[in-house]
Amino acid sequence: MSRMTTERSAPVEPRPIEDGRRWSIWIDVEGFSTLWERGHKAVLGLSALMEGIYSLGTRLYRDDGDRLFAHQFGDGFIIVADFHEPQLDRCAAIAVALMRHISRAGCLARAAIAEGEFADISGLWPKVIREAIARDGSDDCVSLGSGLMTLLPVMGTALIAANKLDARNPVKGSILTVATLDSARISPSFPSRTVDGHAAFTILDWVHAEHSHIDRIWSCAGVGGSPADAERAIRNYIDTEAPPTLWIRGTLDSTNLS
After folding, report:
1. Is there a contact between 59 and 230 (Cβ–Cβ < 8 Å)?
2. Rounded to an integer, what distance in angstroms lies between the CA atom of residue 77 and that of residue 50?
3. What is the distance between the terminal CA atoms of the chain, rounded to a whole angstrom?
4. What pLDDT, on the 0 to 100 scale, is given for residue 9?
5. pLDDT digit string, tens, across residues 144-157
6. For a designed S-S bond to 129, which of 69, 78, 125, 249 qualifies (C-beta 3.0 to 4.6 A apart)?
7. Model confidence over 233-255: pLDDT tens digits?
8. What's residue 17's pLDDT?
9. C-alpha 235, offset from chain centre
10. CA torsion sign, 161 to 167 to 171 to 174?
11. In terms of Cα–Cα distance, which of 161, 165, 252 is closest to 205?
12. Residue 244: count of CB within 10 angstroms of its CB
């Protein structure tokens, strides 16, 4: 990857902004399955993520316009904005704060920022499921005899785009990805770099980013941590968990710690 900088090497033309497209963050705990096999550390990381999102939504971003929608998928969450936002600084700050928050639990996260639609799809479920929901009086689970089927009534490109963006970035490690076409909507307060040979991907330095949104998230919601603490968390994680070499290189390069 190219050298980390707070200035972009070349101007990037932002993609057209479509009404109705809301930013989304896909964030999950790195190495969850491996950590799970070694004890309860994986649960600590997921708990920290869950707690951080809850604190953001109950202490800071509580009202219409600012409010967040979050849904768990396994070891990760999709977080979606209430409305379209022309600038992505608040979105990037939330992702940075949550990644730092998780690092305080001894785990690291990986995240991606994208945009898309997110809607209630429960009306498209099979009739038998809709009838069971009405019968059971619940909108997120139905009985399977003495068992249960849990349901997620929302879906859309906001989830798909963020998840795919993360999966397609070839860089391994604890990284924060945004499409290069969208990176022009994020201020230089978030140091960034494009991926060598893969110009469609831009990585933000979640360790060293500085922005008033990050400060406000920390002071009002208690979510985040200092760059120095995040640096220590990365090095401690590498020493303790001994991840693969490519993972270490990707993490250190993307956070300017090489």
Report:
1. no
2. 8
3. 12
4. 41
5. 999 999 888 888 99
6. 125
7. 999 999 999 999 999 999 999 99
8. 44
9. 21
10. positive
11. 252
12. 11
